[in-house]
Fold:
Amino acid sequence: MADVNRGNRPLSPFMIGPYYKPQMTSISSIMVRITGIAVLGLAVIIVAWLMLASISEQAFQALNWIVQSWLGDLVLLGGVWALTYHLLGRLRHVIWDFGYCWDVKTSELMGKGMFGLASVVTVAVAAAFLIF
Amino acid sequence: MERYLTDRKRATGMGSSHGGTKHHWQMLVSSMALVITAPIFMVTFALGFQGSYEEVVAYFSHPVVAVIMALSLIVIVRHVMNEAVEAAEDYVHGIKGQLTIVGITWASHILIAIGLFAIARMAL
Structure:
């Protein structure tokens, strides 16, 4: 076993696609990580916006014109989707860690629920802003 | 001279994470906090981010809003910081990986500090 090439093998996260069929369980899990890192990016925007608001009106407007534009709306709605999806995905981890819902069928159902519920919440928030 | 090591001492640090299950437990705790904090944060932010400069400052300087924003900032940023650290542990290795983790941790805490200062400055 000492001669086995340990350097050039594809590692598991890079197996999906060419070697491994994308499945609800793997994709819904990867999306938890991606949305988590996306939320960190969103936090940078929100903190910058708060910091500028605390300085002066002029400083505030330097970023606010884009935050309160249609592009800002899209980014923030993306943030609603990412944060909602992430919290549901992390809730799934909590459920798993307490020893429930380990079977594939339920795990896949929860994955679909994460995509579905995050989308429903995002559409509901967008609708609420259009109405009010 | 003989050394007397307990089984526990012999096992400590030998796992792949070198830190036992501490990180996993932290993620479990912050996940539960996130499930409660994130919806409250989204509603609070959505209700007040639009409007003029005066309206925004008036809204975010309200004590309840300021406390919710401060708590959310700590809970959410610390959680996604650990999420990013986990990703770095998986994909970036060696000294590059160590420095990436240090960078993520620094940047996240600077973000929290600036955010808390801004909230306090508006509220006080």
